[in-house]
Amino acid sequence: MELTQDLLNGLLGCAEALYIVEEVSKTVVYISCFPSRSKTGGPFLGEVCYKAFLGREEPCPFCPSLSENQDDGAPPYTWDYFEPDSGQWLKIKNRLVTSKGIQYRVGNINVISDMMGLGCDAVKEVGMMQRLILERDEMRDQLFYELSHDRLTGLLNRNQYNRDLESVYREPKAYGILYFDLNNLKEANDRFNHSEGDALLRRLADSIRTALCEDRFGYRLGGDEFLIVWAGCSKEELNRCRDDILRELRQRDEGQRLVCSVAVGDAWNGCTKDLEQLVLEADKRMYEEKRRIKGHGTE
């Protein structure tokens, strides 16, 4: 059977929307009809497709660039789209065709029957549900963050330290510990107010944070005590880390009403799985340093 022009016209009349768009310029060069624009006279030849079809002023963000993603002869690219003006779901199918050296997007648009009668209101409700799910996930993430982080300083908290003792730090390896104590927190709170004390805590925490990385974790254990656990370090690296933090703290103290008076204790072991004992050693040395500072009247 020969496909005559009469038969071709008959086929075109049965299609809900057939169109041809010049791929580079997005200009419509042929269209049979378009469901959502038929009541207002339909789209016009010579317009860009996103304006002719959907009344948009900018290209559709969901529409793929076929010239980059598809070769001639590739299977049609298909996706569903909800058209809010008509309240209809549309199935869009198109492919890339080159004719006389020009690339065209050839496709059709079919209305998907709304058998459940959902329409636009249901789509809005789906969107609202998606927002609620997103807000729930954000709230869950915030709760997990607050369970593991100190709210004032942003460092890990004692809860996370206790969990890490049972999981992260069970493998025997070299560990280095730096134990910090802020000597003049009570003085800051008594002489000024708690906001001044909070500022000292944040300043020390920010100085500690500059030394943290993938294998170095910083914790605020509570009150004025902070801890760094460094897995796989040498004794010399641990000493340099302590000196770098104290140097950073001195720089942050410049121009402040109160400087941070800090006692630091350290401990290192080349292969241990008893991290708690190592922390106790660092804690003991920190208190020895604290007594030395008080004895010299430099607190």
Automatic annotation (TrEMBL):
Coiled coil residues, start to end: none
Lineage: superkingdom: Bacteria
Pfam families (UniProt xref): GGDEF (PF00990)
Residues of the GGDEF domain: 173-299
PROSITE patterns: GGDEF
SMART domains, sorted: GGDEF
Gene3D superfamilies xrefs: 3.30.70.270
InterPro entries (UniProt xref): Biofilm_reg_signaling, GGDEF_dom, Nucleotide_cyclase, Rev_trsase/Diguanyl_cyclase
NCBIfam families assigned: GGDEF
Name of the protein in its database record: GGDEF domain-containing protein
Native source organism of the sequence: Qiania dongpingensis
